[in-house]
Amino acid sequence: MFRTRRALSSLPGPSSGDWRPLNFDGGAFHLKGTAELARALLVLRLCAWPPLVTHGLALQAWAQRLLGSRLSGALLRASVYGQFVAGETGEEVRGCVRQLQALGLRPLLAVPTEEEPDSAAKTGEAWYEGNLSAMLRCVDLSRGLLETPDLAGKNLMQLKVTALTSTRLCKELTSWITRPGASLELSPERLAEAMDSGQNLQVSCLNTEQNQHLQASLSRLNRVAQYARAQQVRLLVDAEYTFINPALSLLVAALAVRWNSPREGGPWVWNTYQAYLKDTPERLRRDAEAARRAGLAFGVKLVRGAYLDKERKVFQLQGTEDPTQPDYEATSRSYSRCLELMLRLVSHHGPMCHLMVASHNEESVRLATKRYEAGEWETGTHEKVPFLLLWQAGYVVYKSIPYGCLKEVIPYLIRRAQENRSVLQGARREQALLSQELWRRLLGGRRRAPH
């Protein structure tokens, strides 16, 4: 995926010289047990029911009071938790990953911890320090899941910046750096130097407490990146809300300055770009050019975006210009522009540029893969363009999976469902394919599932 120049021998299916045409007819479902298919269909239909998604947290609390913690927890484990979560213990996560590997998939672990903008204030640095420990454990777990020598450096994990720094600080930084003529005292290079040296920053737009929190946050981020680099785990930093993303991008840029140089074997820190924002294609172009000028490796996870409903409500209330694309079609065009740009960069700049196509959309996947099938990419390029939901043609595929206890994961899953409600409501094709496979088995045509 990253620097190797040969086809991945660890993946099932065709070799690099014999790629199969893509097929989205649901044939992979025959690898799943009947109970797993039934659960998947049930959960998809539940997630497509707007009242359940909208009031998910309240319904969870009501079920816990009515049924008790044990029974309500058992129902969640048998349904939503079992469908989306790798498990709670290391052994459970490893068991889940073994099942993914049987399908030719690799894990992309996510710690379900973040600070919501409208949540109650956290109590001091202790909460963020606890999250740091959880992130370091996730690095260890991610490293231990793929230990074969040929997969060194191909272990990935997701990172939420708001687990390690407050959204309030991110808002302050964003309001400052988006002003015309913003001060260079908040340059990525200066923040990277503070990360490395540990010397306290004194940023004029922040008060004493905020400066102390910024320094502590930089230290936490650097410790995760440093440990991940030592353990050969790449960090994919999640995008979040528009009104804090400029600050998050600044912090990621500082990490990139420190950890994405060619001598480090980078990119070890990747940023996420959301195609549903109008300025994303131009911002992606600028960031890629800035990385090239600085001699840094450039890692990108390209997504459509998950915060559309909340973003629009915020900007309507504020009476400010909506930064989001007007409709799904416009978002798709934006995604295609970003994808075309990154595919050119991946093809031309080799190990200095890497892309993850994080998409459920068939057309986006086809756009990327047809370039390979047409011979437009150099040998081995497919290893630098992993896909989150594509395995049939032998490409490198990662599946994003949270892990942890019910108390932590269920609120996280409900928030993800609320952010992705339009996608979940539109998953009719997947529901239809699941139903088709279940009916085929019930009518006596069941294939034997692998052990």
Automatic annotation (TrEMBL):
Its cofactor is: FAD
Sorted keywords for this record are:
FAD, Flavoprotein, Oxidoreductase, Proline metabolism
Q: In this protein, which residues make up the domain named Proline dehydrogenase? A: 192-425
Return the InterPro entries for the record.
Answer: FAD-linked_oxidoreductase-like, Proline_DH_dom, Proline_oxidase
Residues annotated as coiled-coil are: none
Mention any one GO cellular component term assigned to this protein in its UniProt record. mitochondrion
Top-level division of the source organism's lineage:
Eukaryota
Q: Which GO terms describe its molecular function?
A: FAD binding; proline dehydrogenase activity
User: EC?
Assistant: 1.5.5.2
Q: List the catalysed reactions.
A: L-proline + a quinone = (S)-1-pyrroline-5-carboxylate + a quinol + H(+); trans-4-hydroxy-L-proline + a quinone = (3R,5S)-1-pyrroline-3-hydroxy-5-carboxylate + a quinol + H(+)
Into which EC class is this enzyme placed?
Answer: oxidoreductase
Q: Which GO terms describe its biological process?
A: L-proline catabolic process to L-glutamate
Q: What does this protein do?
A: Converts proline to delta-1-pyrroline-5-carboxylate.
| Protein family | Belongs to the proline oxidase family.
Name this protein carries in UniProt: Proline dehydrogenase
Q: Which species is this UniProt entry from?
A: Sciurus vulgaris (Eurasian red squirrel)
Lineage of the species this protein comes from: Eukaryota, Metazoa, Chordata, Craniata, Vertebrata
User: Gene name?
Assistant: PRODH2
